[in-house]
Amino acid sequence: MALTKQSKTTFYVVGVLILAWLAGFFGGKVGSDGGSTQTVASSGDSSKAAWVDKIKKAGELRIGCADAPPTIVVKADGSCSGPDLLPLQNFADGIGVKVKTVATTWQNIVAGLQADKYDVAADLDQTVERSLAIRFTHGSWSYPGVFLVERGSDYKSSTQILDAKKPIATSQGTALDAALQQAKAKELRVDTYQNAAAGVKAGRAVAVFTDLGTAVDMATKDKSMGIIVPDPAIFVHHVAYGVPAGIDARSMDILNVAVDNSVASGEIARAFAGAGYRDVDALGDLEIKS
Question: Which of 228, 206, 235 lies closest to 156, judged by CA?
């Protein structure tokens, strides 16, 4: 039977429609919401917060913490307290879980995070070396490295301390330890800053090189010790929270919101002040000046 002009046109239109449907079928199946199922899957993947979900399922946020008074204090029972835990407490409250602190040492804090002994490492200096093994949140605060010396000593400036070519005590495995090594200073490396101070008192070192917060805490408790602030600065570091290298982007975003809000609201600054922390320009009689 011969096709009329109208019939030919009808078959042509139907053919075009079939080809268009086939192209759409194989290029990306149509989902029930009218969009491509590939697009829906991609959107679904990016919205997952696997790290957060793991913590919520466990019902607790495990925080690894090493002693660095007054920002982090490890108690005799192995629990930790201090103002730099505040953003993590706010994060835990926001996702509806409790906090469990896990005491560790500065030498082992990164290894413990990698071994899943805790979910996050608190009060951790951001360094390139650590960034090769873990990831960091946004910063919560920053500090300079300072010297702690006996007030009766002849040392009144950082230049005198460094030029003495005698051991400077610090806590092994810390960012300050790495800074002294980079400066090629002679070191007395011990496990805690308290033992570093003991080394100075025993004459085994001329000074302790530590973070400002620890120096303020130690000089406040021991009036025979004073703080020397290096000028120019030898070391300034930003402090954040360490998380596993494989954390998903959505979980990192959620955690950073808690950190940023704690900083922007002034809540963490008030907590630091309440714990006795002093900035460099507010050291008063704790500082030794040349």
Answer: 228
User: Which regions of the chain are under pLDDT 70?
Assistant: 1-46
CB neighbourhood size of 267 (10 A): 15
- Which of 118, 111, 109, 116 lies closest to 239, judged by CA? 109
The pLDDT value recorded for residue 173 is 86
Work out the angle at residue 65's Cα, subtended by the Cα atoms of residues 237 and 272, and round it to the nearest 5 degrees.
Answer: 60
Query: How far apart, in Å, are the Cα atoms of 235 and each of 130, 144, 165, 192, 239?
Result: 17, 6, 19, 19, 13
Cβ atoms of residues 259 and 138 within 8 Å: yes
pTM of structure: 0.72
d(CA 156, CA 66): 30
C-alpha span between 209 and 32 (Å, rounded) = 64
Give strand pairing partners of 143.
Answer: 237
pLDDT confidence of residue 253: 98
Sequence letter at residue 34: G
* CA–CA gap between residue 262 and residue 92 (Å, rounded): 13
Q: Across-strand partners of 240?
A: 124
Give pLDDT, residue 46: 60
Handedness of CA 269, 176, 239, 119 (dihedral sign): negative
**Per-residue pLDDT, 45:** 57
Please say whether the beta carbons of 135 and 242 come within 8 A: yes
Give the per-residue pLDDT at 234.
Answer: 87
Using a 10 angstrom Cβ sphere, with 0-12 exposed, 13-18 middle and 19 or more buried, the burial of residue 158 is: buried
**How many Å apart are CA 121 and CA 109, to the nearest integer?**
7
User: Which helix or strand (DSSP H or E) is residue 89 part of?
Assistant: helix 86-95
Tell the residue number behind the tokens 């300034």, with chain if given: 236
